[in-house]
Input
Amino acid sequence: MTAKARITAIDRFIKGLKEDNIYTDINACCVMAGWDSLAGALTPLKGAAPTNSGLSAYDRGVGITGDGTNYLNTNRGSSDDGLNDFHVGVYASSFSTGTENYLIGSLNNNATYNAVRLASNGRVYFYNRNGSSDFAPSVYSGCLASSRDSASDMGVLFEGATYQPSSASVGNVDNRDLYVLALNDRGTTVSVSDATASFYSIGSSLGSDPATGLAALDARVSTLMADLRAIEETGFDRDALAYIRAVEAADGAYLETDVKVAINNLVSGLKSDGLWESMASSCLLCGPRTLAGALVPLRGDAPTAYGFVDGDYDREGLAGDGTSYLDSNRANDAEPQDDNHNAIYLVAKESGQDGFEMGAGLSAGRNMINASVSNVFTRCRDATEINTGLSSVGSGVIGMSRSDSSGYTVRALGGEYSATAPSDGVASENVFVYCVNNAGSPAVISSSTLAFYSIGTSVDLAKLDTHISDYVTAIGAAL
Amino acid sequence: MPDDIDPAPLPENPSTVAELLPHLPVPYAYAKQYACVFSAELADRLTTVQAENPEQFRVTPLALTDGTFMIRGAILSEVPNGLYGHNFARLDASRFDEIALVPWADAVALLPQPDPEGL
Output
């Protein structure tokens, strides 16, 4: 079924390029997503097969991910196409700027330059026969290309729009091969990328008008890539898909298939065990590509981040620093006094001052999770602190759930404890994560690294632990 | 030949945020070495700007024991165009020389240290 769908998508892509009269302008091209293997991804649609220097990370949904060391030699020389009749393009499912790297490029002996460059200043530079243009990205994926049909007419495709900068071609070209995920700098491989490349194309001018040709290429390639990604999502849960789309929008890039499968398995599992509806407010602080993506809510409202920056986040957790915290924007009293849970996934406990990982209120009816030096301390709708005796050393789910007035259950890193602790009210502050909310101000801020939080009505903590732990493990394996 | 993009070297010991303005955003590893320390008046101003323009990414000026306030220097890796860019643009840049850059450990040492057991 999916194989047939992939073939249909490729067939529609090729027919579309032909309808747009740009297929004959493509002289070297690989569709690097949608195939069952890396070998399939490196089978050329047109032209010579590329030579792989050692790339191995292949994802059927998004393509080939660079490792900062290896690259593809397209085996297409820059002067195999005319000086003033040339296009070069790539589709990246994810890329980053800030460190110098290239999606595709060659720099020739006479300094003629053809490339899509991701620069250390955060901008994207296009070079076509040395004519250049640059832009500040707002998303980190998509089709990026340039096309030239005369000495003075160069078109650029960036974030779905075409531009025609006044940028003349320069000089005679020699014949350096263009590299994908690196720059061939006069025979030396430099500025190797860790982007995910899904498609490349090199050839003559795309049609007789660069803007029209580039727009056509963008439409066809973007549709193909959307189709190939969607095929990998066949049968996904509707809420999982909605979350994935929201994360990808926040990230500005597309998630790997294994990450999406992990998300879908999590959502499906939470639903099948009756946990989903109990989770009123939750974020997966691991899996998405960026902090902005990690703060897309799985359930409920988005949190407000106080002080966290993207550098604190590494796809396996969000590291606290003792001053930063999240306001979940979920009031502690949004759930009934005797029907409540709070939970986190602890990746690494703080090394400095002891802090609270989650909580609301400092008097009656308060909630608190504190992975202290060696033990887990809790409060759940109760001013009295409980030393659960459960170990806080290690990583895993720490949660508490109350379903009646007499006491509550704590689960921490696989152990369980039943607290006899009558509820004494319910504090009304929003629940803060990485600290406790004291009348709107953060108190006892933690520097722990967390991968998940959840707030809601009472849950089966063992089942929640299983699903969240499986998810964290799957993300670790996927990256 | 493409233009070389060779940013000016970062100051080794910047004393105020104003010194870093030409370099923003600065790398995370560099920015997190510092805390931004400022007066109560600037803390109030920062709080007001954020209250008037609520964004998903905000800062909380934390009171230090010497009467000043701090936020983490890592924020400087996310301005002027990053996660904290919107409200950064609303601040009075002429007063950035009033925001001292202090080594992170020195500022954290001035945070009140509540006893979690007593809370």
